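User: Predict structure, ligand zinc ion.
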Amino acid sequence: MSCGTVVTQAQMVADLQAGHDSTANMRGLFFPVNCLGKKLSITAYIVRDSLGNDGITQAIIQAAVLAMNGDFAPMCLSFEICRFVYIDNYNYNRFVAPKHEDEVYNLYYTPNTINMYFVSRLEKPAGVQKCGYAYFPGGRDMIVLQKSCANDGKSMSHEMGHFFGLYHTFETANGVELINGTNCTTAGDLICDTPADPGGVNGPDCQLQPYIKDNNGNWYVPQIGNIMSYYSASCKCGFTTQQFNRMIQQFTNNRNYLW
Ligand SMILES: [Zn+2]
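Assistant: Predicted complex:
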């Protein structure tokens, strides 16, 4: 199942603008990997169903956070759950975005923490089921995850990647990235050490299946294991150096108020 985080035009424009206007390039391409040395707090909200069932245990969520911490360890960033909150309004357990979001945001939101909501069914938009979605830096400090995806080994880290400013490796909102790398700073995910990704499908061997060419006739060799791709969670490896650099940059500029 896919992810519901969508790049808005405003987000892209702001991003490219910042990249052009400042020596502190928002794309993070020219920054060495350094160490944030931060542990951030997550407020975990579990929405109960109409019978009062949780649908997910605290232990499962803790395990997912522990696994996510492994993915973020290279940039010295980790997460801990500061509080579990149970939401007894089952209407939000079938969470339809954006319809339910403002209500939930107004009723259940802890400033300066990463507000993570666990629901049985996430639709964004109505009728289209998704594993999760997040806000890019500058947006709300919230991530919504479908309970069934929470501990799949990828979805939580994937949404956290968006939360810290990463785009999908197959993003086309700003143009299609070419395999030869010539437009990697301005198209696709704006990151050059993630090869062009057609957003295809992988086989059981974690290879692209079928193989596809780009408009120049070159064969795609995407990073099937990249967390910001849509390939199988079982193929997952991690983030790249430049993805870490970008997240450090985005955290420092836009999310450094988090505790
Ligand atoms: Zn996504």
